[in-house]
Design goal:
The complex is a heterodimer.
Chain A lengths: L12 H19 L6 H25 L10 E3 L4 E3 L1 H24 L6 H20 L3 H19 L6 H32 L4 H8 L5 H18 L8 H8 L2 H26 L10 H21 L4 H21 L7 H32 L11 H4 L1 H15 L6 H14 L3 H26 L14 H16 L4 H13 L3
Antiparallel strand pairs in A: 1-2
Helix pairs in contact in A: 1-2, 1-4, 2-3, 2-4, 3-4, 3-10, 3-13, 3-18, 3-19, 4-5, 4-10, 5-6, 5-10, 6-7, 6-8, 6-9, 7-10, 8-10, 9-10, 9-12, 10-12, 10-13, 11-12, 11-17, 12-13, 12-16, 12-17, 13-15, 13-16, 13-18, 13-19, 15-17, 15-18, 16-17
Chain B lengths: L3 H26 L6 H4 L20 H33 L1 H24 L9 H6 L6
Helix pairs in contact in B: 3-4
The chains are: A mainly alpha, B mainly alpha.
């Protein structure tokens, strides 16, 4: 590589770009509060997120923070760390934000407070990217709040729509409760170990005499992550929030926010509570229970939904269960970097296919065709391209070899077999079979059913179509390109285990 | 040696027993005279108007409280910074001591400017309050 030598703080450039974009939007809104120039606002956000994505991609290729170039970069006394995993997830979050911004341009036509919408989305992205670099419980909590608080406001964005406000309030209340639990868990861990930084916590665990306090703290920290990743038992907010929010934000929360929750969980449990040190508190078993429960609850609840968006919300809970395998299969004999890497790769594939599916819902809401399965009847006669893309997303979500979802689920299956946890493998297969039923209900409605009499579509919004097309192309491309992605994920995971 | 916690436990026990016994004994002794005035909401001696479940107060208080937080946080961080500022300049130089704080204040100023331009400091006029207003100076 060229002899580019940047100062260490430049490793945080993607987050700085997100934060700066948010500030630029605020300044623009302060100068022109009455402006309705949505092209400019969406343009600024798009440039910002593409810049963040570009920088992250460059770092990933150049090997910043990875073993082949000096290893992980620790900043602010080790409170933040930039390594392969943080870059992997920052790239994921930046991609999702790019898609969401692109789609929001059309979706938000005619709505007020667009500048606030985009700047809150940028601030949430800043928080999520910070979550992927957090290396101490204090920065973990602050970045989690930075990601959560704008999300509450974004869910309640349509402030004259009862559903949106109700969803925002429920999300906020469950979020406040789980933040409190998380903070209390952190305080208990601090009480038992005397440190907040992950490495130092791991170092102090062996000597602590307060095993009970530590165990309670770990359980409460798991609760905090369960909220952020929409896992059982803190998944109740997810269907409400995803259904009530504007569809691009549902996609944003269910993909990027979930991924950010998982990266923090990976880092905390592998660096701060390594299983060989914390033997007394067997969190692997806890995650096995959570994974099976989350998969089953999510998929079986999705089965009996009548509204497509709500079905996708429950399927998102189910996918959180699949990714939990990455923590639940970390048994003694397992190849830890492979197990963890499979979860990371699934999150990346999921980010594209799930965001794409929610953006299709955004398109349907833009057309005002309705929310139930029946309302989608015969949509393919009017919009064959968008429906083809949606079918790719849905089959990929189900795990059929139409998109990257096939390989990522297969890797998760291999991971659970590798970890020797048969129940996880069985639950994964059964739930995927169940999910195929409700995903194909949408496909059947779109392609096979006759259209209802008055189905007519006037406009084909460019931004939304572009975002859906990019998501579909990425989902399909991840089928042949899954090997390199999984390799990158495994390499990033190897630095942690 | 007597355990110190016994005294604390006894104190806790007494603290629970005394109020409970006071309520119990007075309920045994007092006459029961139910009447309307006893069940009404207490509003500092005024006759209560409307239901107590729909308290209406001005949204402006939230705005003021949020702006207060901007300045409050600013003070909380500037104060310790100002205390060590002289030493910090000697130790790490003017740029590293001053610039981070300027960036911090700059971000808050952007927030304040945004709130100002979007009308957070203008007093909200409520149509309902306007219609109910009683002009005293006639």
């Amino acid at each position: 590589m060229a002899a580019v030598s940047l100062p260490a703080w430049a490793a945080l450039a993607p987050m700085a770009v997100f934060a700066l974009t948010a500030l630029v939007l605020f300044v623009y809104d302060a100068v022109e509060p009455e402006s309705h120039n949505s092209a400019l606002l969406a343009g600024i956000s798009l440039v910002g997120s593409l810049l963040a994505l570009g920088i992250t991609g460059w770092y990933l290729v150049a090997g910043t923070g990875q073993p082949r170039r000096n290893g992980a970069i620790e900043l602010f006394g080790g409170n933040l760390v930039v390594d392969g995993m943080s870059l992997f997830f920052t790239a994921l979050i930046a991609s999702v934000v790019t898609l969401v911004v692109l789609a929001s341009y059309d979706y938000l036509q005619g709505h007020d407070y667009q500048a606030e919408f985009y700047s809150l989305a940028m601030l949430a992205a800043t928080g999520m990217a910070m979550m992927s670099t957090a290396n101490s419980l204090a920065t973990a909590f602050v970045s989690l709040e930075l990601a959560s608080l704008p999300s509450y406001a974004l869910v309640a964005y349509l402030k004259h729509n009862r559903g949106s406000v109700e969803a925002g309030l429920k999300y906020f209340l469950v979020g406040a409760l789980s933040s409190a639990i998380f903070a209390y868990g952190i305080s208990l861990v601090y009480a038992a170990t005397g440190s907040l930084q992950f490495d130092a916590v791991a170092g102090a665990i062996a000597d602590t005499s307060l095993v009970g306090v530590l165990g309670l703290g770990v359980v409460m920290v798991i609760g905090g992550f369960a909220f952020k990743t929409a896992s059982v038992p803190f998944h109740f907010w997810a269907p409400e929030a995803y259904e009530g929010a504007v569809a691009p934000i549902s996609g944003f929360l269910s993909s990027a926010s979930k991924a950010a929750g998982f990266v923090l969980a990976f880092r905390v449990f592998l660096t701060a509570f390594p299983i060989d040190v914390i033997g007394a508190v067997d969190w692997v078993v806890a995650f096995q229970v959570l994974a099976v429960a989350t998969m089953t609850v999510g998929n079986f609840a999705a089965l009996k939904q009548e509204k497509v968006k709500r079905m996708l919300a429950y399927s998102s809970v189910g996918h959180a269960g699949y990714v939990l395998i990455a923590l639940a299969a970390l048994t003694d004999g397992a190849n830890h970097s492979f197990v963890l890497g499979s979860g990371m790769a699934h999150l990346l594939v999921y980010a594209f296919m799930n965001t794409g599916a929610f953006l299709f819902i955004a398109l349907a809401e833009h057309w005002e065709v309705g929310r139930t399965f029946e309302d989608f009847n015969g949509l393919a006669t009017e919009a064959p391209f968008a429906c083809a893309a949606m079918s790719v997303f849905l089959f990929s979500l189900a795990g059929l070899p139409l998109g990257g979802g096939f390989f990522s689920k297969f890797y998760l299956l291999m991971a659970s077999i590798n970890g020797g946890v048969a129940i996880l493998a069985a639950a994964l297969i059964v739930n995927s079979a169940v999910s195929l039923y409700y995903y194909s209900r949408v496909v059947k409605a779109m392609w096979i059913e006759e259209p209802n009499g008055d189905l007519e579509i006037e406009s084909y919004p460019t931004g939304l179509y572009a975002a859906i097309a990019i998501a579909a192309v990425m989902t399909v491309l991840l089928l042949p390109a899954f090997g390199p992605v999984a390799e990158t994920a495994n390499m990033a995971a190897e630095m942690l285990v | 040696m007597v355990n110190a916690w016994i005294a604390i436990g006894a104190l806790a026990l007494v603290a629970v027993i005394i109020p409970l016994s006071m309520m119990l004994i007075s309920s045994l002794l007092r006459p029961s005279v139910p009447e309307q005035g006893k069940r009404a909401t207490y509003e500092s001696g005024e006759v209560p108007t409307g239901s107590s479940r729909h308290i209406q107060f001005n949204i402006q208080y939230y705005m003021v409280a949020l702006l207060f937080v901007v300045f409050d946080i600013e003070t909380v961080f500037i104060f310790p910074w100002a205390v060590i500022y002289g030493d910090a300049v000697g130790e790490v130089g003017l740029v590293r001591a001053l610039v981070p704080m300027l960036v911090f204040i700059g971000i808050l100023v952007v927030g304040l400017a945004w709130a100002w331009r979007n009308g957070a400091v203008e007093w909200v006029r409520s149509p309902r309050a306007e219609s109910q207003r009683v002009d005293r100076d006639i």
